[in-house]
Amino acid sequence: MNHIIKPFISTSLFILPCLAWADGAVTGQVTSKESGQPLDFATVQLLDAKGNPLPIGTETDLEGRFTLPKVKDGKYIVKVSSVGNIDLEQPVTIAGQNVNVGELRMADDTKVLEEVVVEGVRSQMRFELDKKVFQVDANIAAAGQSASELLESIPSVEVDQDGEVSLRGNSSVTIWINGKESGLTADNRAQILEQIPAETIESIEVITNPSAKYSPEGTSGIINIILKKDRRGGYFGSAELSANSRGGGNVGVNFNYNTSRWESYAGIGFRMRHNTGGSLSRRDYDSGYFLNSDGDSHNHGNNLFLRAGTTFHLTDSDQISASAFGMFGHRWGYSNTLYSSSLPDHWASNTDFSKNSNDMRSGHVEMGYLHEWNKNHTLNLNIGFSHWGGPGVNSYHENRSFDDGITSDYDLYQEQHQDINSNNIEAKLDYSNQILSWLKLESGFQGNYNHENTPVNTLQGATPESMTVAEDLYNRFIYNNNISALYLTLGGKVKDFSFSAGLRGEAWQVRTRSLAYGQAPESVDWYKKNNFALFPSAFLSYSLPMDNEVQINYTRRIRRPWGGQLNSFRDISDPANISYGNPELEPEYANSFELNYLKSWTMHMISVSAYFRQSSNLMNRMSYLDNNVMYTTWDNIGRQTNSGVEIVSKNSLFRCLDLTTTVNLYNDHISAWSTTYHADGKTFPLSGEARNSFAWDARMMASVKIPWSLSFQATGRYASKALTAQGSRQGGWSVDLALRKNLGDWSFSLNCRNVFDSRRFKSTVDGIGYTQYSERWRGGRTISLTVKYSFGNMKSKQNRRDTAEPVDNSGYGESDF
Asked: Is the pTM of this model over 0.85?
């Protein structure tokens, strides 16, 4: 180990000035402002000058007194929290000696609405060098929304019309719930996120370059959704009711009950959705012919979201936990699409009417055990099981008309039955030990085991009554993906210099079977792939004087193909655009570098992140024409280099205005590529020249505190045009507005989403002999009203077993030593 440790010590001694550091203690007493009585078991937490929590904290004793020992010289904030009282913050400066802050008097929560003078608004974002934390309660527009809609409010995150999420312009992003995959995959996460109510979410964390301790899945990073789990003592909760201008709405109740040994929570929510949407495409051939389409759609859905969990403290060092959430819903809708064509020997018009009806059953159950020898020496075990599935029926009716005077018009009916059945087992074992005062070791195991068995059966005929099984359209896809990983990281802090280095090894096995009509599983051989890869990470950071911080990091990441991308079955729901998967699809690998800088002032903050990512085996959607039908599949083509800079600023102005502005400037370079497709005895060669694309996007969130306990929020976003391997993605913009009124335990929120009805997704495909332009949209302008009521025993004492250290709900992030 010495040959690893010595370079870090030498480097730190070379970089750091030879400063003499003195430790001091912070003491004081916490009392009630109303009664003057001491407040026992209040949480006292030390924050840095920017308001970020430090691993130094305690609880007040029976006399309300506290001591924070061994605090180094510098400027800090002492934060005091106690259930039934408003949080209190006291600036403090340590300069080589102990400091007594005296008596800290906390106002009673039932009186604070009348007495406190509002000096600002709650911050929507918390910025750190390696992640950004989005506080949901501070986002007025979150009221009545889903998790999918909430993600659109986060800087550098985009959600398209299909609910697919991308980060910094890259769709290869991993989404977790409470620090774990929880059954979310690329195939199902759009539907699941659409059904999670925003009011059940506490915060959302964005980590663009996670360490080797965490899964390398997702070349652009991880988005972690943290569900609410309040650890304050006593009972409390909230109830929410909302309705919108499209006839949708939701109702939900969340409840917490905590004692000295038990921490429990439960919630139930019902959500109803009604949306309209549309699409258009314009395909122009070099020969002068065209094939166009215009469509409209109506989508509806009802779903029930349930969650519950409890943690039991066996001893001061041991705790066990159990939690679960489930979603049960029904979706239905219909669409009309009119196709027109001038192609010879081709129908002149085609009217396509489709209906869909799908049931969804999704759930996640988890058990956990935590043992703490001390706060810096822990063992954590978690095992979870997830299920996602449900039957679905999609019906299609095509009416094809010809104007050649020869071919007769005819109708075609199809009905597709699909029964999704996907299961996942996830296991994690994490060990952490502060082996030296300046060095911490973390190691562990993670297993993720997925199984999917989804049959699709299609009926076809000239009339609904004459439909029979279309054997050539039958498919049963069986898919297993088993991932096992071991990791080891070493990290530490010497004065202002921090470092971390880690290595993760992952072995995974992919097994697929695609069965045709009448085939038994044992009659079809498994398509097998065995893989192993190493994923290193390294982080170096340095705290400069006057609240400046800089960090450089490197990680290796991966994007694995998932079920639908590997399934060779053809989706015929759009007769002019047919899609299918590619069982030969290989993983995409990326080497990611970031240089982060963070500077904060009392009322301002700026974060600058320069990033460089090089990807090989680039996974991309590819399209080709056959008999004037566009076929789209997945393939590995060339290499991609992505570089850019993300600038985030947060400014508090005039004691009532909070501005958060994000600008992301990036350049994509895709190398020259070529590939060939073989289908129905034909060959389709495709190629592309090297492409270089500069693009940018910007987002601003403005929150204003105005008189009469009113809060106003406006969010504007813009994304420029960006090139892809086979075309381009057009730019777009949108504006959302929200207003909230607080009245004691009640709050009333009025939101207007997509104010100018401008949220549309536009793209262009440049193929051999043709160009196709497409637009898709859904939802449109929506106005919603939400009423929320908070209740609880606000006089309960703080849980004696709660610690003052920040709770790591996410399960990732660099340790602060």
From this structure: no
